[in-house]
Amino acid sequence: MTDQNNVVDHFELGNIAMQDNRLDAAIAEFKEALKNNAEFAEAYNNMGLALFNQSRFDEAIEEFSNALRIEPNFALAHANLGLVLLNKGLVDEAIAELTKAVSLNPELAEAYYNLGIAYNKKGLVGETIKAYEGFIQHAGENYRNYVEGVQKIVSQLKGQTSAS
C-alpha cells in the first residue's frame, strides 16, 4: 500500500468514525492520515469538527487554522472556524470568518445560518435577516427541517423592524 493510499484510507476511516459519533477514533484516524501527509487540509478540517463535537474548542480552532494555513480559501474551514468562535463567544471574529466563508462559497447554507446567529447576538437586525434569507435561499434537502423555523424568525424580525 502506498503512503497516499494509506492517507486516504485513514481519512475515510476517520469520516466513518465521525458519522458513527466515535470521535476519539475519528481523531486518531485523521492524525494517522496527517502523519503521511502533513498538508492535507481536509483532514485538519475534519479533525477540527471532531474536536468541536467534543467541545474542545481551542484545539478545534488550531486544526481549522492548520487547514486554512494550507488552503487559505477553504470556505468550509472558514465556516467551521466561525462556528467554533461563535461558540466561544468571539462574535466579531466569528462574523469575519463566516463572511469570508460565504464570499468564497455563496452556496454554503450553514455559514449563512451561523452568520445570522452571530448578527442576532450583536443586535444587528437587518444583517440577521439578510443572513437568514441567504440560508433559506441556499438550504438544500439536508436543511429542510430548519427552513420553516428560520422563515418564522425572519418574519418576526421583519415585524420588529417595521414596528420601530
Kindly describe this structure:
With 164 residues, the protein is an all-alpha fold. It has two domains: 1-72, Tetratricopeptide repeat domain (Serine Threonine Protein Phosphatase 5, Tetratricopeptide repeat); 98-164, Alpha Horseshoe (Serine Threonine Protein Phosphatase 5, Tetratricopeptide repeat). It is 80% helix and 0% strand. The protein contains nine helices and no strands. The protein has helices spanning 3-19, 23-36, 41-53, 57-70, 75-87, 91-104, 109-121, 125-138, 144-163. The radius of gyration is 17 Å and the shape is elongated.
Largest sheet: none
Query: How would you describe the shape?
Result: elongated
Q: What is the typical, i.e. mean, pLDDT?
A: 94
Distance between the termini: 66 Å
Low-confidence stretches: none
Number of helices: 9
The share of residues in helices is: over 70%
Beta-strand content: under 5%
CATH topology of the largest domain: Serine Threonine Protein Phosphatase 5, Tetratricopeptide repeat
